[in-house]
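Protein record

Derive tokens from sequence
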Amino acid sequence: MFRNREDAGLQLAEMLRDTPLHNPVVLGIPRGGVAVAAVLARELGADLDVVLARKLRAPDQRELAIGSISEDGEMYLNRIGEEIAQESPDYLEEERQYQLAEIARRKQLFRQVHPQVPVAGRTVIVTDDGIATGSTMLAALHVVKAKKAAEVIVAVPVGSPERLEEVGRWCDKIVCLRAPDNFWAIGQFYQDFSQVEDSEVIELLRSVPRAAPAKAEVRQ
């Protein structure tokens, strides 16, 4: 059980502290993932940024992911999503446009206070406060891979074992503190899992200064 996202980030940082990282940058998935990412960036001497990807929701069960969409507009569908694409293409297009609009809103909000950090040729740590369906993380990884990161590490406090296996196919390494068989929701592993607001994300992005080149090169 983690006290909160900061506690989870500190525990993850300990797991990563001795890992060689080349000019590292930590990318948090808004909003909860940025609270974890900020701690990792501070503890590891890395740059901090967001990666913008959104879950696509089922029509009658909005917590159920049917896929995801990335910042560049590319869409990824799971088995349920593929069925919905066949049966209800109008709904899928409506949901796609809704999530793209939310990505655009967040991009304008966050980038005006924190310009995008380049990731090409660097070790990129992608984090969230946990992995349930894995859809949003998969979309984020496709974004990072397209930007030619040298190494991609997924670091999360907790995750569903079967979804971690799927995510592992799209990154170089996974660091996960807990992957219990009785996983049913991320919030069950936090004492405080209160919602993170946009204003808090902005403050977190402002709180971590850009790492100096000498500090960010290679951690031994």
DSSP finds eight helices and eight strands in the chain.
